[in-house]
User: What shape does this take?
Amino acid sequence: MQKIIVSILLLLISINTYSQNFERGQIIKNGEKFEGFIKYENWLKSPKNIQFRVSLNDTIQTIEADDIAQFTVHNEVYISKKVVISLYSDLPTSRNNPYQPKPIEGFYFLRIFFENQHINLYQMIDKNEGVHLFIEKDKLFQELLYSKRNLYNEQDILYLEEKKKYIGQLRTAFADCEAIKVSDNLQFEKEDILKLCNQYKQCKTDNSINFINKKQAEDKVNFSIGAEGGVFLNTENGSNWVTGVALRLNFPRNFRNTYVMIEGNYYKNNYPIMDFAGGALFAGTHFGKNEIRPFFNVGFAYFNTNSSQAAGVLGIGISWKRSFKFEYRRNAFSSATGFDHLSVGYMYNF
Assistant: This one.
């Protein structure tokens, strides 16, 4: 009996080891789909081949990149493409020791990050872990060219050479959508280029004046007006009410969600004789591009209290669609004195 149990355990271990890392997947060859299991290796470098089996008990097949059109595993989609890339070294080079990029040609599986009828975006990671991005539009498949390397000049001073040909390539690719502007400062990052691809898809899908108007509005200064209410706290009189109105000037998206704001508030104390008003001028910014965004304010305020005091102001909070907001603010008359301000508000964006 003991031998039977041991044999069963060994069999289970063997099956588990044999099927390790094989996940359900799909390959496409000659337009036909084949379901099965693919060995998922969380590729840090783009693979030239994969291991595939129809079932966990079936023989493992090694499939080269030029054998199939694409495969899907672990919610990742890879397409087979023949590429010609240049491998750059991280080592500095000089006129006495020139370094020539090594061209590499062959079929690889490129990961698909964006694919539709208008434009596709692929990524390849070479054996030196260099990132290569490719776009495909109107059947034209091309690498977005970017290089950065350390060089020595004629005086043997080390400097960084950076070539951003991809900016011109993207401008050409998106030229038929005038609402999309490719900035000179666009970083060679998959996420940044992916945003442009999404904008291009929307532009081509809508093909309407609404998309252009929306993009133009983001590129212009606009303003918001709003109201708020809340409590302010101090050690002498406990919690007290505050109400106010604000005018906010929103800068274009190229200024990274920054704004300036003028605000007037009325502070209601437990004792009417201690009521006072105040005005403030802020500069601030929203972080991120989601509907819910944190924000940060800094500025100064003036209060018509008995002593008519000026204060430095620091505020943090979260907003929804840059309209509804919840904010904590510190009004500091000095490093030791001041009061806290908690409020909720609504800004109407024009």
